[in-house]
Design brief:
This protein is α/β, with parallel strands linked by helices and 334 residues long. It has a single domain, classed as TIM Barrel (Alpha-Beta Barrel). It has 17 helices and 8 strands. It has helices at 2-7, 23-32, 47-54, 60-70, 77-93, 105-109, 115-133, 149-161, 188-196, 211-219, 236-245, 253-258, 270-276, 287-290, 294-305, 309-321, 327-333, and strands spanning 10-12, 96-103, 136-144, 170-176, 200-205, 225-228, 248-251, 280-282. The longest helix has 19 residues, at 115-133. The radius of gyration is 19 Å and the shape is globular. The model has no long low-confidence stretch (mean pLDDT 97). Bound molecules: adenine and zinc ion. Residues 16, 19, 60, 67, 176-177, 204, 207, 255, 285-286 line the site of adenine. InterPro entries: A/AMP_deam_AS (IPR006650), A_deaminase_dom (IPR001365), ADE (IPR028892), Ado/ade_deaminase (IPR006330), Metal_Hydrolase (IPR032466). The active site is at residue 207. This is Adenine deaminase. GO terms for molecular function: adenine deaminase activity; zinc ion binding.
Length: 334
């Protein structure tokens, strides 16, 4: 079964590129770029103390604190290129054929790194990965929901004015960071603009937030996907709607355990989603922080649920169908 899962053609839809920064690369870039890591936080004493701390996140916000410090070592285009190419190399080994990766421009522009520095590095890695591995990929620009709607709009306009949505450099928008207290409707204006312009739309919802966060993302922000969405299982009517509309949920099992959204993978509503015809993909979220890449997430689900090969085929085919690549690529992958 493990060989079957390894070889299954995979699409990854929920991967924060900044969340693939390993402690090794974090320390290496901190030294190269002369970035001071917080000396008052003993977790940053060494690679091993940092790795040990990553095993004890208490919530999404506890993780985000480390995530934003970690990415502060990324300075040049070449840093972003190395980061993304390392991820693609790893994803290729796990059988990923197509990846749609999130990036958080505001987390970089806010500390003086230009939007274009980030994108130039990511695009260079995408081109190399396609050439070296035949791995296709797309970028999804995420807005940080702990920042204002105006800031999100400004970021959207910066990307738009560079032609990044119209030329396909960026396929869509997303919404991440602290969920509870920062509901999706705050960002309705930027979602309306993206919708109007035919840009793809997703949002993190129902990770820590209750099912109304999912409903509001669908109704008010007109999203086409839901990232995480595990709390959908708590609302039967909404679950039926999501199944009927074939809205893709991008589920991240190891993340949900590390961030204490559930206490174990077996507590995730995977069986319920399968039995109700909800389309979902299995993803790694922030693999360097959560103890596993995409294949580790597949193995964890298999261990907890003992799915059949037919069920895995259904999941993998749904992931291809729910991808934002062109129809020709989908037909090739199916
Ligand atoms: N940013 C990176 N990972 C995230 C997650 N799991 N939820 C919300 N924002 C994030
Ligand atoms: Zn995420």
């Amino acid at each position: 079964m493990r060989q079957f899962l390894k070889e299954l053609p995979k699409c990854e839809h929920h991967l924060h590129i900044e969340g693939s920064l390993s402690p090794e690369l974090l320390f290496q870039l901190a030294a190269t770029n002369r970035i001071k890591l917080p000396h008052d936080n003993s977790a940053f004493a060494s690679i091993s103390t940092l790795e040990a701390r990553y095993e004890h996140f208490t919530s999404l916000d506890d993780f985000l604190h480390f995530y934003y410090i970690g990415m502060s070592v990324l300075i040049t285009s070449s840093d972003f290129e190395s980061l993304a190419y390392d991820y693609f190399t790893r994803a290729h080994k796990d059988g990923v054929h197509h990846a749609e990766i999130f990036f958080d421009p505001q987390a970089h522009t806010d500390r003086g790194i230009a939007y274009n520095t980030v994108v130039t590095g990511l695009v260079a890695a995408q081109q190399r990965a396609e050439k070296d591995y035949g791995l296709t990929s797309k970028l999804i620009l995420c807005f940080l929901r702990h920042m204002t709607a105006d800031d999100a709009l400004g970021t959207y306009k910066a990307a738009s004015s560079l032609g990044h949505f119209s030329d396909g450099t960026v396929v869509g928008i997303g919404l991440d960071s602290s969920e509870v207290g920062n509901p999706p409707e705050i960002f309705r204006e930027v979602y309306a603009a993206a919708s109007e312009a035919g840009i793809r739309r997703t949002a993190h919802a129902g990770e820590e937030g209750d099912p109304t966060y999912i409903e509001r993302a669908l109704d008010i922000c007109n999203v086409e996907r839901i990232d995480h969405g595990i709390r959908l299982a708590e609302d039967g009517a909404l679950l039926k709607r999501v199944a009927k509309d074939k809205t893709l949920l991008t589920v991240c099992p190891l993340s949900n355990v590390r961030l204490r959204c559930v206490s174990k993978v077996a507590d995730l509503p995977i069986r319920k989603f399968l039995d109700s015809g909800v389309r979902f993909s299995i993803n790694s979220d922030d693999p360097a922080y959560f103890g596993g890449y995409i294949l580790d997430n597949f193995y964890a689900v298999q261990e907890a649920f003992g799915l059949s090969m037919e069920e895995w085929k259904y999941i993998a085919d749904g992931a291809i169908k729910g991808s934002w690549c062109d129809e020709e690529r989908k037909t090739f992958l199916l």
